[in-house]
Design a protein that fits this description.
Blueprint: H1 3-20, E1 25-28, H2 48-57, E2 62-66, E3 73-77, E4 79-80, E5 83-84, H3 86-94, E6 103-106, E7 112-116, E8 124-126, E9 131-134, E10 139-142, E11 146-147, E12 150-151, E13 153-157, H4 166-173, H5 197-202, H6 209-223, H7 226-238, H8 243-257, H9 261-268
Antiparallel strand pairs: 1-2, 2-10, 3-7, 3-9, 4-5, 6-7, 6-13, 8-9, 11-12
């Protein structure tokens, strides 16, 4: 068997191991970090037949793991030409905010992925600290995948139920000034006017933009005002948030806020 064939078999075997552990997996374009399925991470599966079919159809594909429960949460410590995330990681260790993970993976650029028990937290990104967090709606490329000619390598693995508190880490690494006051809403037993929320989202500063979008989107969903939700999304885009992050945040708001009044009326009918 050639070295390439051994590598292909190793990718399928790894994908099946992750799936057997209850972690949904997805195929990733060979040599890249881009999902190879039509709907990306939303196609991730633990079905061994589906997983096998993916890699038999294209054996050279990298292996992706969908993060957030039931998959793992992953703290991503990056190394870039303009800086490294290791000082931030060491600070988290000193402050007791980085418990011992279930796995440590060395990434192709000599950063690390620290795997923790999956939660329902949102993804996070601290560019100044060179630290990312992958939870609900995210994914990571996993061993034995190869990107740029370099392999993702497992450094350590051990049983652990430790979780990572991303909000606490963010407050330590990127403290923000008191956020702008959330606009006053009408009493819960009366109609809610949410048409002004787009203007409030539009003035949020970096570091508070995603949280502001999430809060406003929840209020629009609760009010059942889809037009206001569209306006809020456009306002978030104007602040610099990218379309994928806006879509993920609004989707999360829909789950958190529950059905809109019109949805509840249909269910009651």
């Amino acid at each position: 068997m050639s070295t390439r064939e051994q590598g292909d078999d190793a990718r399928l075997a790894a994908a099946l191991r992750y799936a057997a552990a209850g972690w949904p997996v997805l195929p990733v374009i060979p040599g890249e970090k881009i999902p190879a399925t039509a709907h990306g991470v939303h196609d991730a599966s633990t079905d061994p037949d589906r997983v096998t079919a993916w890699w038999k159809a294209s054996p050279g594909r990298n292996v992706g793991i969908a993060t957030g429960a039931p998959g793992p949460d992953v703290l991503d410590i990056d190394v870039h030409p303009d800086g490294s995330g290791f000082p931030a990681f060491n600070r988290l260790l000193r402050e007791g905010l980085a418990p011992r993970p279930m796995a440590l993976v060395r990434t192709p650029r000599r950063g690390i992925h620290a795997y923790y028990k999956g939660t329902g937290q949102r993804n996070g990104h601290l560019p100044a600290a060179h630290v990312d967090y992958r939870s609900q709606g995210g994914y990571v490329v996993a061993p034995p995948s190869v990107v740029g000619g370099r392999r993702y390598e497992l450094v350590r693995h051990e049983p652990s139920d430790a979780t990572f508190d991303w909000d606490a880490a963010r407050r330590l690494l990127d403290p923000q000034p008191e956020p702008a006051r959330e606009p006053r809403m009408r009493a819960a037993d009366g109609p809610r006017d949410v048409t002004h929320l787009a203007g409030w989202v539009a003035v949020q500063q970096e570091g508070n933009r995603n949280d502001g979008l999430f809060w406003a989107a929840c209020r629009a969903v609760e009010a059942g005002d889809s037009a206001a939700l569209d306006s809020i999304a456009r306002a978030a885009a104007a602040t610099g948030l990218d379309e994928r992050e806006i879509t993920r945040t609004i989707r999360s708001a829909r789950r958190s806020a529950g059905p809109s009044p019109s949805d509840r009326e249909r269910e009651a009918g």
